[in-house]
Amino acid sequence: MDEQDDDRPPTRHLEEDECWRLIEAAPFGRVAASAAGEVDIFPVNHKVDREGVDGPAIVFRTAPGTKLIELTIHANVAFQVDGYDDEEAYSVVVKGEARQLERSTEIEHAETLGVTPWAPEEKPRWVRIQPTDVHGRAFLRRRTAG
Known about the structure:
- The chain is α+β, with helices and mostly antiparallel strands.
- The protein has three helices and eight strands, in the order E-H-E-E-E-E-H-E-E-H-E.
- The protein has helices spanning 16-25, 66-73, 104-111; strands at residues 12-13, 29-35, 38-44, 46-49, 57-62, 76-84, 88-100, 125-140.
- Strands 1, 2, 3, 4, 5, 6, 7 and 8 form an eight-stranded antiparallel β-sheet that branches.
- The radius of gyration is 17 Å and the shape is globular.
């Protein structure tokens, strides 16, 4: 089957509220960060914090190391979740500024969000991504014969 035989509707752009619902439902996402001319992508367990004064934000835990160093050097990051079900596939990308939470009130609030890392290492540091852009796309999956 080639593109000319594909009768599915075109890819649709997701509204911002739908993007946030998909981010909240995703069990993990990926953070892309750049430092010293290199780009790295890190999987993270995350939660959406809807109580920030600047609107919703993404919060995750991490350990000291490469990810935290890169976020400190270059705070502009991208965060992505994607997934699919029987009918549709989607991808959501958030661009924003990451910063380590340092004030005790911020950390105490983050701890109420229920972020539970899958990795066994201790993740004592908290990072918040404040979005500057949220966008997503979805499309109907092609039916397979069978």
